[in-house]
């Protein structure tokens, strides 16, 4: 596959909110979710797996990660500048892209219904089937989620995840296999984007760089490639030195 070219320079420390969107979210609109130790922030384990590190983590940062998540935990981070400790196992290293609204034809959808806590079992089942990315029992609390039902069955959904100031990520875009090819995911992306725009914010998305069909679709809808991102997952060693539990706050 040929490399994906973006039109912006690499992120710099202290720069754009989308350079470190999980951290910008947990320091901003999602601060009520934040659990932390030192400079490390995370969402509750049943909301989102994302861990937010400072732009340039040091040795103390990684010690705090080990204490906050515990031995053996997998730490998912995106766009990390620098490297994790050499003795931490890398369990995921994937190329991704970040896309931003650049003229998306956002519009409400008359068939879309708002999803909430009562819909979570169906949402989890759809995600398990379609595998769009992480979705946990309380992920629905991160923003607005919309779905389309056919015969009472939830067959497609999309919603909001990370929320840096002024921006909202569209995520969990998925359709049941039996209902693909009908444009349901596209309609929901445009409907979620409409809600984001109505709040005076700007939609953005992430996608795996290798999922070229999805990337092309999002570009055709009016999203622009902003930058390349590395999705990294590293495992805390079982023997990693950590702070005493009472130090965690």
TrEMBL record:
Signal peptide as annotated in the record: none
CDD domains per the UniProt record, alphabetical: NAT_SF
Region (Disordered), start-end ranges: 1-23
Domain N-acetyltransferase: 110-237
Alphabetical UniProt keywords: Acyltransferase, Transferase
UniProt GO molecular function: acyltransferase activity
Record EC number: 2.3.1.-
UniProt cross-references to InterPro entries, sorted A to Z: Acyl_CoA_acyltransferase, GCN5-like_dom, GNAT_dom, YpeA/RimI_acetyltransf
SUPFAM superfamilies found in the cross-reference section: Acyl-CoA N-acyltransferases (Nat)
Bilayer-spanning residue ranges: none
Domain of life, source organism: Bacteria
Keyword Chloroplast: no
PANTHER family associated with the record: ACETYLTRANSFERASE, N-ACETYLTRANSFERASE DOMAIN-CONTAINING PROTEIN
Name of this chain's protein: GNAT family N-acetyltransferase
């Amino acid at each position: 596959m040929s490399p994906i070219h973006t039109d912006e320079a690499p992120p710099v420390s202290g720069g754009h909110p989308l350079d470190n969107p999980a951290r910008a979210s947990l320091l901003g609109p999602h601060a009520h979710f934040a659990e932390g130790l030192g400079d490390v922030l995370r969402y509750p384990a049943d909301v989102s797996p994302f861990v937010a590190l400072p732009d340039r983590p040091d040795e103390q940062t990684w010690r705090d990660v080990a204490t906050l998540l515990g031995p053996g935990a997998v730490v998912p981070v995106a766009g990390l500048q620098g490297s994790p400790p050499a003795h931490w196992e890398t369990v995921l290293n994937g190329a991704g892209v970040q896309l931003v609204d650049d003229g998306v034809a956002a519009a409400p959808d008359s068939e879309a219904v708002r999803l909430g806590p009562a819909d979570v079992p169906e949402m989890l089942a759809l995600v398990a089937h379609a595998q769009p990315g992480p979705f946990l029992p309380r992920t629905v609390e991160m923003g607005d989620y919309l779905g389309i039902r056919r015969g009472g069955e939830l067959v497609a959904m999309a919603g909001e995840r990370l929320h840096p100031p002024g921006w909202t990520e569209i995520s969990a875009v998925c359709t049941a296999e039996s209902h693909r090819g009908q444009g349901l995911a596209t309609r929901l992306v445009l409907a979620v984007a409409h809600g984001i725009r109505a709040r005076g914010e700007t939609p953005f998305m992430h996608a795996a760089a290798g999922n070229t069909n999805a990337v092309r679709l999002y570009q055709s809808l009016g999203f622009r490639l902003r930058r390349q991102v590395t999705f990294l997952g590293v495992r805390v060693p079982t023997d990693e030195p950590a702070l005493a539990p009472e130090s965690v706050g």
